[in-house]
Design brief:
The complex is a heterodimer. Chain A is an alpha+beta fold. Chain A has two domains: 2-228, 3-Layer(aba) Sandwich (Rossmann fold); 240-358, Nucleic acid-binding proteins (OB fold (Dihydrolipoamide Acetyltransferase, E2P), Beta Barrel). Helix content of chain A is 23%, strand content 35%. Chain B starts with a helix and ends with a helix. Classes of the chains: A alpha+beta, B mainly alpha. The complex binds adenosine-5'-diphosphate and magnesium ion (MG).
């Protein structure tokens, strides 16, 4: 069942086109994450769904109802902001109550509801404080609580964790995920943090300069990016890109990347490969490991002997920069395997994970 | 030497102005207080100590009572009118209206004028034979009367209106800056919560402007104490002494009635009054912020 439908949505500020023909369908209960570099129009899209911004053309539907010209308060949504946007002159309790009071709900119902949600978010002992007396994490909990008590059809989050420190961000992320799992309410979540997107999303929408690049499950977007932008934007450290061109030898396709020729027998081409076509081969660091390490799907990996030129510990593993002809690639080694610099080692390539992009259009082929 | 300079540069840079303040502000406050304990006439003399007798005389001068009451009447009305209307105008301009800068300039223009010019303009406007009254008469409403300047009971309103006309721009500008400084997300959250705009202003935004109120009250309070030139230009304390303010009284005693001792006593009482009002207010406000 479609809960939110955004159709042919455009938004311009003067001559600046911020959103370009956005189409998006969201099923009930999904957790959609809008991901993209800052300034790409994520917040604008969220504000348009909320009704805080008017769209220049297009339509918005929520719960099967056309809400294009409906006021935010009548859209049955709740929103959590990066700056928390708590009312500083009111206690935590009043912050959570105010929206319900405005809707004419009797106090006898509001009280227990607020207290229940506050307990759920572990802020019940803070109810009589002012927002200025709370820490960042507590403020964000209150902001989430304010959204929760409204029991809306849709939750909207605009970078709710961006103002928190790394550790708190991770734990709040888990809590938001748990919350969504227990409530099952449809949610749209804006972030520029790919880790948040990967962990929270049931589906993610990658945006660039006002355009949707790819919509899909996190692992799908991660492993099968539709273009170089998405491939490059996701992953830390980023995907390795090797420039080369395709070879066709009697039905067998391979890619000549200078220092080696990578067999692409197992690769599912979406567009028929052309001999001599200039391509970019993308392979994530975790698919480049010592040949002795068993990788994903069993089959004997393609192996090359390469020289490590730099190593970095990250704690959980070692990042190894390898010279591959003119180009450099990064492999992810287990933390107990630290190769000596300059001494060639046998490296296994998990080519079942490879992505092939046309060099000119930058699209996946 | 260099390290000494580096470490103490700020003190060195500030010391001339500190010295000037010490002499010309606190020094002369002390000097005035000293004069108020003497029987000085046209010139300050310290050979005739009379203790608190000048204060005693001040307490029994009816004209001083009028002036002192007027300060509170004028000050209270002026604060009330200027703050409330200034805030309302700022809120209206904050509605992202068209030609915002045009309206902003109109409200701000009087600020560029000195109190003397303001006083003269309003003296003309309120003059029954020249100004607004004549204009309204010419429109056909011949029973209209605007005798604020000649009626001792309402002359205080003439002062309030003129002072408001001048002070409103600054107050509006301060409030507008405060309103513009409020996190946009608060408005968005309120829109989603379905809180009507007037309620957002009353319960959320205006309480958030508390620091601006502090600034405005202090600035207006200073202009109340300094409003000497406005009174001189607009009413000259008249009719009779009905629009006298302590500053006018003080000036009159010092330079026309050659009674420097009494004048100094009134100055000290004025200072004391201002401090008595401002200090608790500043204390409460700054402590709340901290
Ligand atoms: N009110 C506005 N007026 C003009 N330009 C705006 C306005 N709001 C956003 N923009 C522009 O729209 C673009 C997208 O903004 P936004 O949706 O906030 O990006 P994101 O949330 O992805 O960082 C930016 O280039 C921004 O400068
Ligand atoms: Mg944003």
């Amino acid at each position: 069942m479609i809960d939110i439908r955004v159709s042919n949505c455009n938004k311009s500020y003067g001559s600046l086109r911020v959103l370009k023909d956005i189409n998006l369908e969201i099923e009930r209960g999904e957790f959609i994450v809008l991901l993209g570099p800052s300034g790409c129009g994520k917040s604008t899209l969220l504000h348009i769904v909320a009704g805080l911004d008017r769209l220049s053309s297009g339509e918005i539907e929520i719960g099967g109802r056309d809400v294009t010209d409906v006021e935010p308060k009548d859209r049955d949504i709740a929103m959590v902001f990066q700056s928390y946007a708590l009312y500083p002159t009111m206690s935590v309790r009043s912050n959570m109550e105010f929206g319900l009071r405005m809707r004419g709900k009797p106090m006898s119902e509001i009280r227990p509801l607020v207290e229940e949600k506050a307990r759920m978010l572990h802020i019940d002992h803070l109810l009589d404080r002012r927002p200025s007396q709370l820490s960042g994490g507590q403020r964000q909990r209150v902001a989430i609580g304010r959204a929760l008590v409204r029991d809306p059809k849709v939750f909207l989050f605009d970078e709710p964790l961006s103002n928190l420190d790394a550790k708190l961000r991770a734990s709040m992320r888990t809590e938001i995920k748990k919350l969504h799992q227990s409530l099952g309410t449809t949610a749209i979540y804006v972030t520029h943090d790919q880790l948040e997107a990967m962990t929270l999303a049931t589906r993610m929408v990658v945006m660039k300069a006002g355009e949707i690049q790819q919509i899909g499950k996190p692992e799908e977007v991660y492993h099968r990016p539709v273009n170089l932008f998405v491939a490059d934007f996701l992953g830390n450290p980023g995907m390795n890109f090797m420039k080369g061109h395709l070879r066709l030898d009697g039905g067998r396709v391979s890619a000549d990347v200078g220092a080696a020729t990578l067999p692409l027998d197992g690769y599912a081409f979406e567009v028929a490969p052309v001999a001599g076509q200039a391509v970019v081969i993308g392979l994530r660091p975790e698919s480049i490991q010592p040949a002795s390490v068993q990788m994903s799907d069993g089959g004997a990996p393609y192996a090359l002997t390469l020289k490590p030129i730099l190593t970095e510990h990250t704690g959980s593993d070692n990042l190894v920069v390898l010279a591959m002809g003119e180009q450099e690639i990064v492999g992810k080694f287990p933390s107990d395997m630290l190769p000596k610099l300059g001494e060639p080692v046998a490296i296994g390539f998990d080519l079942s994970r490879v992505s092939v992009f046309d060099a000119e259009s930058e699209r996946r082929i | 030497m260099r390290r000494f300079l580096q470490r103490h540069m700020s003190q060195i840079a500030l010391s001339p102005s500190l010295a000037l303040i010490a002499i010309f502000l606190y020094g002369f406050i002390a000097y005035t207080a000293a004069v108020s304990t003497t029987n000085s006439k046209a010139f300050p003399r310290f050979d005739n100590f009379v203790g608190l007798e000048q204060y005693w005389r001040l307490l029994h001068t009816p004209r001083w009572h009028v002036a002192f009451t007027n300060m509170f009447l004028f000050g209270g009305l002026f604060l009330l009118v200027t703050i409330s209307l200034g805030l309302v105008i700022a809120i209206l301009i904050d509605q992202r209206i068209r030609a915002e800068s045009f309206f902003r300039s109109i409200v701000m223009y009087p600020m560029a004028m000195s109190f003397v010019v303001t006083g003269i303009i309003w003296q003309w406007l309120l003059n029954p034979t020249l100004g607004i009254e004549v204009m309204v008469h010419q429109l056909g409403f011949t029973s209209f009367r605007l005798d604020w300047l000649t009626n001792p009971d309402t002359v205080i309103w003439a002062l309030v209106v003129a002072a408001f006309w001048q002070g409103c721009g600054l107050v509006m500008a301060l409030f507008l800056a405060g309103l513009r400084g409020i996190d946009e997300d608060i408005w968005k959250a309120a829109a989603i919560d379905g809180i009507p705009a007037w309620r957002v202003y009353v319960f959320i935004v205006i309480p958030m402007l508390a620091p601006v109120f502090l600034t405005v009250v202090v600035l207006l309070a200073l202009s109340i104490v300094r409003s000497f030139d406005l009174v001189v230009a607009l009413t000259n304390g008249g009719p009779g002494v009905s629009s006298d303010l302590p500053s006018v009284f003080m000036f009159d005693m010092a330079f026309r009635r050659t009674n420097l001792g009494l004048s100094a006593a009134s100055a000290v009482v004025m200072l004391g009054t201002v401090l008595a009002i401002l200090i608790p207010y500043l204390y409460a406000e700054t402590r709340e912020r901290a």
